[in-house]
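=== RUN LOG ===
request id: a7f3
mode: sequence -> structure
chains: 1
length: 449
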Amino acid sequence: MVGILVCVSAFAAPKNFIIILADDQGYGDLSCFGSKRIQSPNIDQLASEGMRMTQFYMASSVCSPSRAGLLTGRLPKRVGVPRVLFPHSTTGLPPEEVTIAEMFKTKDYVTAIVGKWHLGHLKQFLPTKQGFDSYFGIPYSNNMSTSPDLTYAKDLKLVQGWTAERLQGDLAAIKADSKSRKDLAPLMRGDEVVEYPADQSQLTKRYTEEAVRFIHENRDRNFFLYLAHAMPHVPIFASDAFKGSGENPFCDSIHEIDWSVGQVMKALKDTGLDQDTFVIYTSDNGPASAGSAGRLRGRKFMTFEGGVRVPTVIWSPGEVEAGVVCDEMVSALDLLPTLAGYVGAEIPSGREYDGQDVGALLAGKTGASPRNVNYYYQATQPDIDGIRVGDWKLLIKGDRNRKGQKRTFEPMLFNLEDDPSEKKNLYTERPEKVQELKQKMEAFDATIK
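=== RESULT ===
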């Protein structure tokens, strides 16, 4: 029998919670994180009124695993999502896993996801089976296509010259060779595809309109909104109003996401909920080719800091002090237990959680994070790659490319306090530290089944 762990925060809890997630936005891709080419005034305002987190980590440097960790508080390998999922994948986040949304449902919250899911497109893995009351978005990355396993609405809207005959022919071809087409993401509402292919130039705008409508419709209920943008993942799009607003389409897309944040915050103010809502803005992993990791080394697919450390802002009037810069180590894995603590929710205790309640840190009741260790797993394999304990970081196995092929890689040891850009390899100079960290890393990994 699964036991119950009751999380109770000692602080006054906000009543509503919003997580806004960008896709492939790097550590250096916001003006409040040092970008000179991107203007993000709305997110910058959140940072000035809340907390800017300089050492916030995702559980992986690629989409599906990072989202699995964020929503469950458990490492992707532990929940069976160590790799990116595709339209031909037959697996997903197991229904028995408890998501943040399911946790909120135990406290009678209304829950919604608007945007990218990417944790399984088969019916048993869709958001409506994982604690979300409603879903509007794409089932996986926007550079992917549709699947014969999806359910298509009777009033399916076909755009961009597609016809029912062409779609049926394409689905038959995909089923025969299991090869997905590219850049033709289906748009879903609930468990059905309602538009194909999605007009990606309008996704950020439509997601924003959906999120604003959800806030207004549920102004008298406690709610959890997960707004997971498709951008700036490739192919990169922005609506006409933002085209040319930056030096390239990547900047344009983030400018529109920043506008979206402004619209969400306006909706909170218009409904009188702005003083009673917890908002977190972050990214699912480091940047792809167009983005910037700032001073950090590496990017998406890598276990260098640029692959997993992401720009993060937390805003909650009365709970998070304004204008705070937090340099403590915090992980997306910590969100579930922290949010559970705010609302006194029960989460199953008969399983291992990798997150910790950081509510006291966010409230300024302590200056130290309860997290002192971070584990690094390879992007396309379930293999552990490294560990961080305090300021010391060991990378031992190396990253793999998109095809899972191992790159040439020498083991590395860094002191992140002295060398946040991971330029000076101390592996041969500190063999005793290497041995200490390697033993801890391997001992931990051995406990994950």
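=== NOTES ===
The two ends are 19 Å apart (CA to CA).
The domain at 374-445 is CATH 3.30.1120.10 (Arylsulfatase, C-terminal domain).
=== END ===
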